[in-house]
Amino acid sequence: MAMLRRVPASVSIAAAFARAKMFIKECTGIGLKPLDHLDEALAMCRVRQLRNPRAQVFASIENQLHYLRDVVSETETDRGRLRNIALGQYAGAHLDDIDPPFGRALNNASRIAECLAVGCNLESLRLRRASRRPR
């Protein structure tokens, strides 16, 4: 029979604290990188596009999010289209009332695009997580 190793109380408390800290980070969105916010918006867009494949607006949103993700990850060098991104208009005009989490995700992406167009630091943005983790 294998002997169980006794874990000191301080180690288990530290592990519990680390798990709680990660849970808070996931729920609030504090500490997430801009790429995490863009990935979240892309995932939400893909789900909505599968639900309604005829809506061309989701294809446009997905293309803009892919471009923005490529600019943030520095695989795209052409930043000329940053000022033409219309994610904020989609969020404000159509999706904020109908689908608030997706509207927040698009607002986050729009703020990232505006920050990149102006040239400010992305780490200084305070972005809210679009969808809360289910409890």
Estimate the global geometry from the Cα principal axes: globular
Radius of gyration: 19 Å
User: Structural class given helices, strands, pairing?
Assistant: mainly alpha
Written as H for each helix and E for each strand, in order along the chain, the element string is HHHHH
- If helices are DSSP runs of H or I spanning 4 or more residues, what is the number of helices? 5
Beta fraction: under 5%
Helix percent reads: 55-70%
DSSP, total strands: 0
Stretches where pLDDT falls below 50 for ≥5 residues?
A: 1-5
Give a quick account of the main beta sheet: strands, pairing sense, barrel closure: none
Measured distance between first and last alpha carbons? 38 Å
Give the mean pLDDT.
Answer: 77
Keywords summarizing the entry:
135 residues, mainly alpha, 64% helix, 0% strand, globular, disordered N terminus
In short:
This protein has 135 residues and is mainly α.
Description:
The protein is mainly α and 135 residues long. It has a domain at 33-124. Helix content is 64%, strand content 0%. It contains 5 helices and no strands. The longest helix has 20 residues, at 9-28. The two termini are 38 Å apart.
Which secondary structure elements does this structure contain, and how are they paired or packed?
Elements (H helix, E strand, L loop, with lengths): L8 H20 L5 H18 L4 H17 L14 H12 L1 H19 L17
